[in-house]
Amino acid sequence: MSKKGILITGGAGFIGSNFIPYLLNKYPDYHIINLDKLTYAGDLSNLKEVEDLQQYEFIQGDICDEQLVGDVFKQHSISSVIHFAAESHVDNSIHSPNSFIKTNIEGTFVLLEAARKYWSNSRYPNQRNRFHHISTDEVYGSLGETGLFSENSPYAPNSPYSASKAASDLLVRSYHKTYGLDTVISNCSNNYGPKQHDEKLIPTVIRKAIEDKPIPIYGDGSNVRDWIYVLDHCKALDLVFHKGQTGESYVIGGNNEYANLYLAKTICELLDQLSPKEKGSYTDQISFVKDRLGHDFRYGLDISKMNRTLAWNPEEDFIGGLTKTVKWYLRKYEKA
Ligand SMILES: Cc1cn([C@H]2C[C@H](O)[C@@H](COP(=O)(O)OP(=O)(O)O[C@H]3O[C@H](CO)[C@@H](O)[C@H](O)[C@H]3O)O2)c(=O)[nH]c1=O
């Protein structure tokens, strides 16, 4: 794609802050503008490796701010958008859904409108202008013990979070169908790896374990998630952004389905090796707590479209990726 500015929203979040260094490393002549509000979930220290690069610019701001977003498009000749910015934590959406509706739905709408208006008046009419919307597998709802979601599965979101992401996906779809905007949507499963916010399951298990506190497992721990190493997700995003078919959706998963209790025990066993307790095992700290309201039982993905059309497959071995992740958090928490 072109050398014009690529707007990355939410680049200070977990996946964005893994993706930006990946992209700049692979495409050193790209110019990246990272627009991020820096909510509690954003952390610029995760972007230290790129902050001094000329090809990288950070702007603190809200995607709901129409004026700001319009100015960013004009001032930076934005040629494409990769839209990560979102409120992402399901538990927060259950307690306080407002910001999810605002950021995830209205924010996406503001970006789509800016893209539609700016690109239709572009000084570069032959340039390809793409809007890549980063989304979640949670839009498809919950599976039982069997079956897999694919791009053809009906939308059936269960939490305010997933409903807000489903709404934003449908807005993106409508801008393709109605205005011919060049859009792609990717719906990914649970990411793990360095730089994830402390609130999510894997960092929570590691942090509580080394703080010698109870490790909270919701319900009976039988809920299943499909885990993908964040850099495998970044590689998939690179392919979808550059080579995905306009108007299409792509389901991205790690082929690593594990029940939460099994995952927590595996992390504890890794910690037993990497940072042994004086007595006993970290698994002794696992503690069952009240279940999440409307807790989706299982997500599992059929990733054959990514494989067939973009020759992508997740590469990271789960225990290898988890070991790197545990070591990263041990360094982070032991420093803190
Ligand atoms: C934080 C926490 C979570 N859990 C459970 C709830 C879930 O079944 C599982 C993973 O929880 P979380 O880490 O919050 O992630 P989950 O709700 O699956 O959603 C994640 O994965 C989604 C993709 O599937 C993303 O769209 C979301 O933004 C991301 O937050 O672990 C616990 O049992 N204990 C905990 O303390």
Automatic annotation (TrEMBL):
Enzyme Commission code: 4.2.1.46
PROSITE patterns per the UniProt record, alphabetical: ADH_SHORT
Molecular function GO terms recorded: dTDP-glucose 4,6-dehydratase activity
Cofactor: NAD(+)
Keyword Amino-acid biosynthesis included in the entry's annotation: no
Catalysed conversion reaction: dTDP-alpha-D-glucose = dTDP-4-dehydro-6-deoxy-alpha-D-glucose + H2O
Top-rank taxon, per record: Bacteria
Record GO biological process: nucleotide-sugar metabolic process
Top-rank EC class of the record's enzyme: lyase
Domain NAD(P)-binding positions: 7-323
Keyword terms, alphabetized: Lyase, NAD
Family per similarity comment: Belongs to the NAD(P)-dependent epimerase/dehydratase family. dTDP-glucose dehydratase subfamily.
PANTHER family (alphabetical): DTDP-D-GLUCOSE 4,6-DEHYDRATASE-RELATED
Protein name, as recorded: dTDP-glucose 4,6-dehydratase
Species annotation: Muriicola soli
Underlying gene: rfbB
